[in-house]
Write a structure and sequence with these properties.
Distance between the termini: 19 Å
Structural class: alpha+beta
Largest sheet: 7 strands, antiparallel
CATH topology: Jelly Rolls
Radius of gyration: 18 Å
Bound molecules: 2-oxoglutaric acid
CATH architecture: Sandwich
């Protein structure tokens, strides 16, 4: 990953004003200006292709495998912890620029990566067939009940111009204020309308569905309780993104709540209150060393 960034860390400090932090807490998400250069985006797109061909930059311990992918399939591809095996993805999802912004938004001094996602949403096939690639409305925290705080933040990095035509993300404005909704772990359910009806019927607030339109290199940051999802990619180009899920430095394990694939990294004697620290959860902010 080329070291040059669009903004210096000092400029990031200036970018995330109190008004930005207020907007994030009011609306449940915030879109940044461009954080990645054209060269970085090109490298990340190439890294994506290598990742899906399973050309790995590093060996991986057997516990966490990356199974072969059918490169001709029109199904959504989604893997977690791609940063383990791809150095370009690693640099992006542990970027201090993203970490510094998340620190301001989460109002914390220390930010760690909880895990990442590498997401590839194919477009329409040459013969017009499609698998839609919808991502169901969900709250990220619906999967993260083993974490001690809902004050977690996701950064979604657009690797091309992204809008509703290519299945860009949509957020439900203000929904982070509704608390955790039962059964909100529906990433893999494609019927957005049915899910919207179910959640809206719970009457926690108005269902305001807002497209999260991003230029390549821009990043959206959403709260772990903000409902979000995405519709079909109706273009002939895939929609590529890398995603950093982040936690504040004092986030610890809550036992007996919910399984999550990352919990295995706590080891065989995991205990209530154990901090998510160490190599599996790299510190993004402040920069170490
Ligand atoms: O890529 C999408 O459409 C959804 C991504 C998502 O759920 C997330 O970044 O938390």
């Amino acid at each position: 990953m080329p070291p040059e960034a669009v903004l210096s860390l000092a400029e990031i400090e200036e970018l995330v004003t109190d008004a930005v932090v207020e907007e994030y807490w009011e609306r449940g998400y915030w879109r940044s200006p461009r954080l990645f250069t054209d060269d970085q985006i090109a490298e990340l797109r190439a890294a994506h292709e290598r990742f899906w061909r399973r050309e790995l930059d590093r060996e991986i311990p057997s516990q966490y495998g990356f199974t072969p992918v059918d490169l001709n399939s029109l199904k959504l591809r989604q893997d977690c912890n791609g940063w383990w095996v791809n150095d370009t993805i690693r640099a992006a999802v542990t970027s201090p620029h993203i970490g510094a912004i998340a620190a301001r938004l989460m109002k914390t001094d220390v930010v760690r990566l909880w895990h990442d996602q590498v997401i590839y949403k194919p477009g329409v096939g040459p013969d017009g067939t499609t698998d839609a690639g919808n991502v169901g409305w969900h709250q990220d925290f619906g999967y993260w009940k083993a974490c001690s705080t809902t004050n977690m933040c996701t950064a979604w990095v657009a690797l091309q111009d992204t809008d509703l035509r290519n299945g860009g993300m949509r957020t439900i404005v203000g929904s982070h204020r509704w608390g955790l909704i039962e059964g909100s772990d529906m990433f893999h359910t494609k019927d957005l309308e049915a899910l919207a009806k179910t959640y809206a019927a719970q009457g926690k607030g108005e269902w305001i569905d807002e497209p999260c339109i991003l230029k390549a290199g821009e990043v959206s940051f959403h709260h772990a309780l903000t409902f979000h999802g995405s519709g079909p990619n109706n273009t002939h180009e895939p929609r590529l993104s890398v995603v950093a899920h982040m936690m504040p430095g004092d986030c610890v394990y809550r036992s007996g709540q919910q399984w999550h694939p990352n919990l295995v990294f706590l080891g065989p004697n995991a205990r209530e209150g154990q901090p998510f620290v160490g190599d599996y959860w790299p510190q993004m902010w402040p920069v170490v060393g």
